């Protein structure tokens, strides 16, 4: 693979074709079971986000995914890259889908909060935690963000 880069205003850019090849490598490295329910465009988008995260060298941090839906990207980040995730969505069925698929792929890495924001969690290390909550305004956003950070430190 060529490693051509362009410098512009102290920023470094790669040619699209090089990025495209690297994203393709990420797609090939991930077991196909993680792509259940996704079409090719969705897989490409998810792996492009992963490419960005990998190149930012995020290290051992935690992600809070607000509006996580069914957790397609979350299960890849948590299981493949071993980065803890807190999935937040207002629709319980979406979170249940996240948990169901994660259990099929990696059932020892789930912490599920079936209650609302006031629930308690065990102090076991898990890579996916879920919260059902509807964010309606800035106050709700701050509440859920703070709770996410609390869970991250559990």
Number of helices: 5
Shape: globular
Strand content bin: 15-25%
Helix content: 40-55%
Distance between the termini: 42 Å
| Order of strands across the main sheet | 3-4-6-5
Structural class by secondary-structure content:
alpha/beta
User: Largest beta sheet, briefly?
Assistant: 4 strands, parallel
What Rg is obtained from the alpha carbons, in whole angstroms? 17 Å
DSSP summary, beta strand count: 6
Write down the domain tally: 2
The ordered H/E elements are EEHHEHEHEEH
Weakly predicted, low-confidence segments: 112-125
pLDDT averaged residue by residue: 73
Short recap of the structure:
The chain is α/β, with parallel strands linked by helices and 154 residues long. 45% of the residues lie in helices and 16% in strands.
């Amino acid at each position: 693979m060529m490693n051509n880069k362009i410098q512009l205003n102290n920023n470094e850019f790669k040619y699209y074709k090089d990025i495209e090849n690297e994203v393709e490598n990420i797609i090939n490295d991930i077991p196909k079971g993680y792509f259940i329910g996704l079409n090719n465009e969705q897989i490409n988008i998810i792996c492009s986000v992963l490419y960005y995260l990998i190149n930012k060298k995020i290290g051992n941090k935690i992600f809070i995914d607000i509006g996580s839906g069914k957790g397609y990207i979350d299960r890849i980040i948590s299981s493949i890259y071993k980065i803890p995730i807190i999935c937040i969505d207002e629709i319980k069925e979406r979170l249940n889908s996240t948990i169901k698929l994660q259990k099929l792929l990696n059932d020892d890495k789930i912490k599920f909060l079936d209650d609302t924001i006031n629930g308690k969690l065990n102090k076991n290390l898990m890579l996916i935690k879920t919260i059902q909550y509807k964010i309606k305004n800035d106050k709700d956003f701050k509440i859920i963000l703070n709770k996410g950070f609390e869970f991250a430190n559990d």
